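User: I'm writing a tutorial on reading structure tokens. Could you give me a worked example: one chain, its sequence, then its tokens, then a sentence or two explaining what the tokens reveal?
Assistant: Sure. Here is the example chain.
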Amino acid sequence: MTPVRGRLTLLLAALSVVGTLAGGSAAYAFNDQTAVEWSENYYLSPEPDRVPEAIAYLRSRHIMSVDNRHARGLIGLFAAIFHDHPQKIELWLADVGKYSPDEQKMLLQSAWLSDTAEGRAVLAAQGPERLSRLFGQDVAKVAPPSFANLSIDDPTNVDILWGHFYGTGDGADVRRIIAATKNIGQPTYIKDKVNLPGKISSDAVKNLTKNSINQPKVFAVVRAEATAHPNNITLKNIVLHVQDEQNHVTAVERAEIDNPKPPCEAYTICKDQ
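And here are its predicted structure tokens:
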């Protein structure tokens, strides 16, 4: 599986037509590259006033769907932003009822997970019928789970945790994703069918590795956890891989470091020396 960052990047890059604002005259401030940078580095330089632009741009790309694994992290991202700016949720989602069902579901789930009175008010304004149609129940009357308690046995939630990290920079999200590696070593497929525990753990390791390379804060958490749990081979291998990337150590060189050839005895002819 392509890591979260890579999946969203590839998805946006594959959509080549630059969107225009309603009315068709002015180009969006966002393009494929800046949309990815804004979403994945939000916690480093928050720009909440760009939320309307971001929503409009992402809608123009037709990727806002909870069923689209490439974009599910956006749920966590917007939930984090809504939580920090609850007074703007109503304004930002004023036209959500006019969006496609997929777009409504994604943004309203973000409002729900923001766990704010303002988010609940927006949900209640949709009416129980619409909410039940979108979510199978009136979520305005259901308390959302905290991000600390999202089930890591659900691949959707692991993606949402990455998005929440992008919005907050909270190391707790990374530690929850580390916990999702618990079944590493299990096969990802059994008789051509996905083995979910193994697949979730495999994907979590790939994402932790890639994001440790791209996000220093992720690597700091992974390295701290590896130090705190020296018997965790998975974390040790992630740290080694990232350090090799930083030091430009190739896979061949790493293999030679990990499996050194025995020294030649004085009476032995070493053909490769």
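What the tokens reveal: The mean pLDDT is 86. The radius of gyration is 22 Å.
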